[in-house]
Structures are given as structure tokens and as C-alpha cells.
Amino acid sequence: MMNLANRYDFVLIFDVKDGNPNGDPDAGNMPRMDAESGHGLVTDVSLKRKIRNFVGLVKDQDVREPEPGEKRFEIYVREKAILNHQNQRAYAALKLDAVELPDEVSAEDNMFVAAETADAKKKKPAKEKRKGGADDVGSARQWMCQNFFDVRTFGAVMSTKINCGQVRGPVQLTFARSVEPIVALEHSITRMAVATEAEAEKQQGDNRTMGRKHTVPYGVYVAHGFVSSFLAKQTGFGDDDLELVFQALAQMFEHDRSAARGEMSTRGLYVFKHDSELGNAPAHALFDRLQVKPKEEGAVARSFDAYSVLFDDQSLSVGQSVQPAPGVTLTRRC
Q: Residues 53, 256: contact at Cβ < 8 Å?
């Protein structure tokens, strides 16, 4: 594995047809949208979930019952996971005594281990190592980064009860926002069955269950992403991890099909690679030059053919690279 030596920014473009890309449970699972502009939204959490699921598939991990031991591509935030059990594994593997934090953890509570260790260093010889101190938490945090892909990629708060510290990940994503305002449709659906005998008796054998379903007829969404080489050094995130992230962004919707989401597809992944770690151009200045626009203003779009994706009025084919600024290379990955 090679260390990351460059800054990256990227643009993800995807679309949805007759599906709900990201329902809001506080609004009856309606598609998320900006209440003022009507533009559709997909949260960064939703996109990260799809990346996690894709990595689990590619690396052939059993996301329900992982085997003990070190696996570089395990998933920390997985379905039905108990995070304190995940944290405990780090202490068990390192043969350290875990320090439990209170159930209701405040910012001050999170700092008590470090404070105790600082006091102990004043009272005890420097050679003596205090169990459960900052050194142990640091070792546990490093173990979590080494073994869990999503921890070293996105970061995690692991100071719940069993303290493995906190990690800020090198890969960050924004909300995805639709290019145009969306229309959220609501449909009545019927299931020709009921769940209980009591329901069947009420319907005198008709046995139907009515439900509701929300969809977006069509929408194109754009999300922005950032990769910091400085934070990558802290978590051990390397070139192979970054390549896996890009692969996931390109293919994750192909393995996330469901009746609720309809047809969702990645339509473009544009990656800006900087020659330096600090970066050679502001991210917003690069993003502003990549325009996703309808070909015909005011027309009702029902396919991606109704849109154009241009960088400085130039269309890029898959695999094509250009130099938008000194020290920056833009490549269309898919």
C-alpha cells in the first residue's frame, strides 16, 4: 500500500427514474428536498452507506457475523452492528484493558481518560504505563483504522462506552442536490394479502392491504467529494483504498437495486488530482466550471439524454483527461 501524496476533489453525477433516492422518515418517507427551491437532496450518509455495502461485497465480507481477527476491509458501521462490541475487539486484539465511558457521554466525559493520564504522569515514574490511558486509546484507534475500511476512510466517533477515540476521515462527501427541482409523486399500492386473521375477518375475506409509495419521475443529482492526504496519513488511508472508493462510486448503484429506488445509475465521476498535497486550485473554482444543464430549458426531462455535462464548454469522454489549472489534472472516471 502506498501513502497518499496528492489532494483530490471529485464530482459524482447520478440519476433516478421512478424511484425514491433517499426517503425522509420524518416526512412519511417522501423524497428529501429543499423546501425553498424544490431541488431534491440525497444525504452524504446515504451515499456512504452504498459505498460501505459495495466494499463489503467486493471484499467478500459477511456483514452480519465477521470472523475474529484482522481484516483490513471490515465495515464498522454495518447493519445490526453493536458498535461497543466492535470497539471491544480492538482492546481484545491488543490485549489491553478497555475503559468504559458513561452511557450519557458529554464532551467533558470524553476527555476524562486523557486527563487521568496527564495527572498520572505527574505522580508516577515516566517508565510506568497506565492501563486505559491515552496510549491505550491511541493504540485502539490505530487498530480500528487498520482493520475497518470505513473508519480510515470516513472517520468515526468511537468513544461510546468502550473508548477507541475519534477519527476524522480523509474522504468527505456533500449532500447530492438535483440539477432541477423535482416532483415528488405519491402512489397508492395494494397488497393482495393481510398480516393477521383479525384483519381478514374485518375485510370478510377480501384480504387486501393498502399502502403508499413515493417516487421521483426523473432527476439528475450532483454531489461533491474531497480527499485530504494529510488526514489520510493519520488513518492509514492509501492509494488502494482511494481506488476502491472510486470503484464504489462508479458501480455502487448496480448492486443496490430495490423496488423503492427504481432505476439509479452513476452517470459521471470526474476526479481532480492536484500535484501537491495542499492543492493547486480551490475546489469550488474547479467545481463551478463543471456544468450539468438541461439541453432544452423548460422541457420535461425523463432521461439523461436531456442533459449535457460540460467542463469549460467541453464534453469529456470516459478516460479522457484535461488540465484545467496548473498542477491539476481532471479525469473522467466513468
A: yes
Q: Which of 16, 144, 150 has the alpha carbon at shortest distance from 70?
A: 144
Tens of pLDDT, residues 4-62: 999 999 999 999 999 999 999 999 999 999 999 999 999 999 999 999 999 999 987 55
pLDDT in tens, 102-139: 555 444 444 444 444 445 445 444 443 434 567 899 99
For 121-159, the DSSP string reads HHHS-TTPPPTTSHHHHHHHHHHHHHHBHHHHHHEEE--
DSSP letter for each residue of 189-227: EEES--SSHHHHHHTTT---EEEEEEEEEEEEEEEEEEE
130-139 long-range contacts (CB < 8 A, ≥24 apart) are 131/96, 131/97, 132/96, 132/97, 132/98, 132/99, 136/91, 136/94, 136/96, 136/97, 136/99, 137/99, 137/113, 137/163, 137/164, 137/165, 138/165, 139/90, 139/94, 139/96
Rounded Cα distance, 161 and 110, in Å: 10
| Nearest to 242, CA basis, from 209, 273, 275 | 273
**Domains of the chain, residue spans:** 1-43+176-334, 64-174
pLDDT digits (tens, 9 = 90+) for 269-288: 999 999 999 999 999 999 99
Cell of 30: 417522501
Confidence of residue 196 (pLDDT cuts 50, 70, 90): confident
* 301 three-class SS: coil
Average pLDDT over residues 220-234: 97
Closest of 303, 287, 305, 310 to residue 219, by C-alpha:
303
